[in-house]
Every structure is written in structure tokens, then in C-alpha cells.
Specification:
149 residues; mainly alpha; 77% helix
Length: 149
């Protein structure tokens, strides 16, 4: 297909005889030029549609990325809150364990219990007399003394 480019678009100048044949007000447009312009217009529309479609896809992708980033940020924030809560609970547990250790240190150890056991066995508290028993014994002794007299 032999296409000629008109002089307006940088093509070779049109010879004078072609200009003389144009008696009407409209310029003569060669069929190849017209089909070229139509072809270029069609291609331009196709490119514009592709551009619009790409732009839409880019916008959708951007929106999806923003939404995904927000969700991930919210998840990270939730995980950080849980980590902070766990750290606080661990700290509280450490404090309670320290208190428990101090209380255990204040309790009697095995040696202290053995010493107390030896003293109890030595004293034999089973043989001790209660106050009521002591009063009763004293009363009985006094009564016996009074009866003898």
C-alpha cells in the first residue's frame, strides 16, 4: 500500500496541476490519506482505551494495597497490644514469685523443724498439766489437808 503524506504533515508538496483541478470549497483528500487518518484515529482510540483500562487497574491495585496495609497495620497493632499485655502479666508474675520466695525464706527450714521436734520430745508436753487440772489438783490437796485436821 503506497501512502502519501500531505504537505501539512511534512509530506512532499502537491504539484500545481492537482491544485487546479479542485474547483470546490473542500480540499481534495486522497483516499490513502483518509484511510491513514482513520487508521491513526482508530489506533489512538484503542490506545486511549488501553490507557483508561490500565489506569483503572492501577487504581484498583492501589486501593487494594491501601486496604491490605490498613488491615496489616491493625493486626500489627493488635499483636503489639497482646505483647504488651503479656509483658505486663509476666512482670506481675515475677513480682508475685519474688514475694512468694521472700515468704518461703521466712518459713522454718528443715533444720529448724528438727530442733523444735527435739525440744518437744525432750519436754514431753503430753505430761504437762492444764490450768484446770492444776486447780483441781490443788483443790483436792487442800481438801485432803482440811479433812485430816
Amino acid at each position: 500500500m503506497n501512502q502519501t503524506i500531505p504537505p501539512q504533515f511534512g509530506g512532499p508538496p502537491v504539484p500545481d496541476q492537482d491544485k487546479k483541478q479542485n474547483t470546490g470549497k473542500q480540499p481534495i483528500v486522497e483516499p490513502t490519506l483518509s484511510s491513514s487518518i482513520n487508521d491513526i484515529s482508530r489506533r489512538l482510540r484503542i490506545l486511549e482505551e488501553r490507557y483508561v483500562n490500565l489506569r483503572r487497574k492501577t487504581q484498583v491495585t492501589d486501593q487494594n494495597m491501601i486496604s491490605s496495609n490498613r488491615q496489616e497495620f491493625d493486626e500489627i497493632r493488635a499483636v503489639n497490644a497482646e505483647i504488651s499485655e503479656l509483658r505486663r502479666e509476666v512482670h506481675e508474675m515475677k513480682d508475685k514469685i519474688q514475694i512468694f520466695i521472700k515468704e518461703l525464706q521466712m518459713c522454718a527450714n528443715k533444720e529448724d523443724v528438727k530442733i523444735v521436734e527435739r525440744f518437744i520430745n525432750l519436754w514431753e508436753p503430753i505430761n504437762f498439766v492444764t490450768q484446770n487440772e492444776a486447780e483441781r489438783i490443788v483443790k483436792n490437796v487442800i481438801d485432803e489437808q482440811l479433812k485430816r485436821k
